[in-house]
């Protein structure tokens, strides 16, 4: 299910990126939706949900700027088995929204824990050193925090915290250093290599129910040809490509091994 790319287009952030073009892909257009930046009301969220139900395939979703990270809430909506949310992010996204009618890029994890009974735990990787201060007491028992400085040397230690067989993966590139991603938020200092090493182990050992990536640099008609913007597009495009191609490769490798294992079991049964 992770062999294709779905682009969620709010602001043309991917118009000059090419990482997805040689792979099966589709674009879901949300550019006409007003008042969706940072915050989204229930009416617009429902409209987006209904639109997403009509998409041809799912694959890895690219959400655009971190301002639209709340779309990860919708992408978990139909999960019907116990799962863990694996979040690579410099921020916890657990700050309550200003209104019950609104969801925000900074509240969607809290909303997910409040609304989804199948969501057992959230493991946050790469958050800031002050992350614990932003976790409401009501959900602290369901959240595990790993800052860059507290990541275990052995990835298996982190994997042991995942009690479910299935996971949903969400990546905000603001977790990365600015050599490997450029966003419009304050960023962490994790290397892409570290992110990929953890991601590989999770994909190899768990069922992946879905995955999304955000953290694009905002592009608009006033800045799209600036040298700074063009540099950001190039860096983010390359990182997006590396993330997707590795997810696809590891998922395919796991699938082939499962098929091989199943065939061997059948042969053993009838020998």
TrEMBL record:
Pfam families from the UniProt entry: Arginase
InterPro entries xrefs: Ureohydrolase (IPR006035), Ureohydrolase_dom_sf (IPR023696)
SUPFAM superfamilies: Arginase/deacetylase
Protein name per Swiss-Prot or TrEMBL: Arginase family protein
Source species of the chain: Lederbergia graminis
